[in-house]
Amino acid sequence: MAREWNAVAYEGLSSPQTRWGAEFLGHVDLRGDEDVIDAGCGTGKVTGLLLERLPRGTVLAVDGSRAMVEAAGGRFAGESRVRVEHQDLLELEVEEPVDLVFSTATFHWIKDHRRLFGRLAGALKPGGRLAAQCGGEGNISRATRATREVMSRERFRSSFEGWDDDKNYAGAGETRERLEAAGFEGVETWLHEEPTRFGSVGELARFLATVVLGGHLEKLPEVEREPFAGAVAEEISSVDGDPLLDYVRLNMTAARSGGAG
Ligand SMILES: C[S@@+](CC[C@H](N)C(=O)[O-])C[C@H]1O[C@@H](n2cnc3c(N)ncnc32)[C@H](O)[C@@H]1O
């Protein structure tokens, strides 16, 4: 099962992810009556924007973190068009196949994209669509370099013995191939840049601790977590004095084969 997240902190800090999710959603054609899965719904901020586009539709909001599911469940309490479920997307099961799988800022947390795309295809009606955005090739390379440097420091090194990186920033070409192999057609994949600047090194450190370094912090004793995130933020900013994350988003749209058209 996917790891736990700090849902309260994510709700407060995830305005970049919400903004990209809103922009991406703006390019998805919807009639308004579709049944949709939000794959990796988090606290449900982007799910809420999706729901506004579905006055006669439904959303099955799925997440692998119990804290996220609890937050999203609270957000949509009493909303009959939304069901929130705790599920690992790599084991995704649905009662009825849906018209669209939508997802933002989630797939790069999942190592096995072949299996993921197979499960998503299985959750779609023939001809049903996938529209997803996540971190892609080259994403936050400044943070990746800085994190490796800080992990190798004497103070933190022993906590990361045998560490296997927890992100999967896939390229556009390999993603297209994996989607086609999973039974999707009309596949389009592309990368775009979203450089994101923070107001201060401290602000960047708080963002990193919640959104980027959660898996790393789990490896560290409680007392070392804040210093680790702070050191990574300092290291990123030391390049040119700029607390900036060089985000790169991987976008993908496709249809499950077997549709009428
Ligand atoms: C950065 S948050 C994105 C949340 C929301 N979609 C947004 O754009 O703000 C990533 C989410 O993916 C979920 N996640 C990661 N791996 C998962 C998996 N294997 N199965 C289900 N959810 C997963 C995490 O629990 C987390 O809530």
TrEMBL record:
One of its GO terms (molecular function) is trans-aconitate 2-methyltransferase activity. It holds the Pfam family Methyltransf_25. Residues 36-128 form the Methyltransferase domain. Its EC number is 2.1.1.144. The keyword Heme does not apply. Keywords: Methyltransferase, Transferase. The keyword Methyltransferase applies. CDD domains: AdoMet_MTases. It is an enzyme of class 2 (transferase). SUPFAM superfamilies: S-adenosyl-L-methionine-dependent methyltransferases (SSF53335). One of its GO terms (biological process) is methylation. This is Trans-aconitate 2-methyltransferase.
